[in-house]
Amino acid sequence: MFRVLLIAFCLTIPTVLYASTGLPPDFCHYGSIEQHQAPPPQALPKVEDNSNANEEKFQLRLSGGNGGFSGFAIQAQDPSGAPVGRFQIIDEHNSKTMACKNLDDTILHAETQEEGPLKRVDFSWIPA
């Protein structure tokens, strides 16, 4: 039951697409990222849970379909908007973490995608 609830929670994590120039400098200050969204994409990336039932962390994949995506930021939040858990990088070439309130509480795209748009990014999320 907990796994189903957490997967549903992960699918509702605010995911924002950004240009490869990076996040706005005030990203962590506001707690809400909706005001920094890029123009709506043609299709939203999807998040897949590739975890085993016995693991204490969730293996996730963000994929963007045929067109890919040039940037992203993901932060799991509690109902009050505070970041929860931490992210673990699997693909160092395409992603990095940052600390808004806690260590590794936000995962985002690497500064540049020299090979063009990202097709997918794998990462882990560890509940707090």
From TrEMBL:
<protein>
    <submittedName>
        <fullName>Defense protein l(2)34Fc</fullName>
    </submittedName>
</protein>
<dbReference type="InterPro" id="IPR002861">
    <property type="entry name" value="Reeler_dom"/>
</dbReference>
<dbReference type="Pfam" id="PF02014">
    <property type="entry name" value="Reeler"/>
</dbReference>
<feature type="domain" description="Reelin">
    <location>
        <begin position="38"/>
        <end position="127"/>
    </location>
</feature>
<feature type="signal peptide">
    <location>
        <begin position="1"/>
        <end position="19"/>
    </location>
</feature>
<keyword id="KW-0732">Signal</keyword>
<dbReference type="InterPro" id="IPR042307">
    <property type="entry name" value="Reeler_sf"/>
</dbReference>
